[in-house]
Design a protein that fits this description.
2 helices
């Protein structure tokens, strides 16, 4: 572990010249410099024994591998390879080379003599001339059939063209010409006349519809004004001139006095009920006092006559049960 500073390494880690102004290096404080050396010494003392042990184990392992395991492995591999070849490779190689190959060569020669040579002779001197004769005969028959087919096709085409000309001429004179004449001299003029009549009728209906709209608007306005003169204005005049003053008189002379009287009656009734309840409560207290007597009141020493006597708070057991002692009372008779 290197304990000395490496200025060259620090120079390599410096930023490029373009970035030197942006992030200027900060000076290390005295505390960092004072802590670095003891820490490095302690780490060196702890790491050096581990590194020495690792290097020793690596050297021993390398020596054992190159001087012991590797030669033994090579010998064992050579023996295993020889045994594998002797048991599995060499017998099959000898069988293939000295048995299968000669037998295959003999069978190939025998098959060529018995089958291939006769088949080649039969194909060359029998089947080929026979095929050439059959092909020549087929070409002659095909040429005759083609000539016959071309003649029959030409006759059928000529006959079909004649029949089509006759049929088309008949259809044109029987159906197309009459239909064209009827369309040109009957349906077209009639359609134009119907179109003119329909257009004129449509224009007349549109004009009548617009005139009827104006007349309806005028009549509607006249009826609205008439209804306003007959019903709305008299009702408005009656409401404004008659009903509104009558309503004000009824409100001021009848409704407000009746509301104030009802409020006074409700207040008097509530006071009477409160007085009755208080009288009943006093009567019930007087009866209870006559039957059972008034409760005794202890007047404390030094009390001023005429002032209310404070009522002492009732003594109760503590909320949390505590352990009783010899000095505490255990019965109601022994309590203070």
């Amino acid at each position: 572990m290197d304990l000395e500073k490496r200025p060259a390494h620090r120079a390599e880690q410096q930023p490029p010249p373009g970035q030197a102004d942006r992030h200027p290096p900060q000076a290390e404080g005295c505390l960092a410099v004072a802590i670095r050396l003891p820490v490095r010494i302690v780490v060196l003392v702890l790491v050096v024994p581990v590194r020495l042990a690792w290097d020793a184990l690596a050297v021993c392992g390398r020596f054992l591998y190159f001087r012991g395991l590797r030669p033994i492995g090579r010998g064992v591999g050579a023996v295993v390879t020889w045994l594998f070849k002797a048991v599995f490779v060499w017998p099959w190689v000898g069988l293939w080379r000295y048995v299968v190959v000669p037998v295959g060569v003999a069978l190939a020669w025998l098959g060529r003599v018995l089958f291939v040579v006769p088949a080649v002779w039969l194909y060359r001197w029998v089947l080929t001339p026979l095929g050439h004769g059959i092909a020549w005969l087929a070409r002659g028959i095909g040429a005759g059939a083609a000539w016959l087919a071309r003649g029959i096709g030409a006759g059928a085409a000529w006959l079909g063209r004649g029949i089509w000309a006759v049929v088309s001429t008949l259809c044109r004179w029987l159906f197309v010409a009459p239909a064209t004449a009827v369309w040109r001299w009957v349906l077209a003029p009639l359609g134009r006349a119907v179109a003119v009549v329909a257009r004129e009728v449509g224009d007349a209906l549109g004009h009548a519809w617009r005139v009827a709209g104006h007349i309806s608007l005028v009549i509607g306005r006249f009826l609205a004004r008439l209804l306003r003169w007959i019903f709305v204005e008299p009702v408005r005049w009656a409401y404004r001139t008659v009903l509104t003053p009558i309503g004000h008189v009824v409100r001021d002379a009848v409704w407000r006095p009746a509301a104030r009287a009802a409020k006074e009656i409700r207040r008097a009734t509530r006071q009477a009920l409160s007085s009755a309840r208080e009288s009943v409560r006093q009567a019930r207290a007087d009866v209870r006092r006559m039957l059972f007597g008034a409760p005794k009141q202890t007047v404390p020493v030094g009390a001023v006559p005429g002032e209310p006597v404070p009522v002492p708070a009732a003594r109760r057991e503590p909320d949390a049960p505590g352990a009783r002692t010899l000095g505490s009372s255990t019965t109601a008779l022994m309590k203070d």
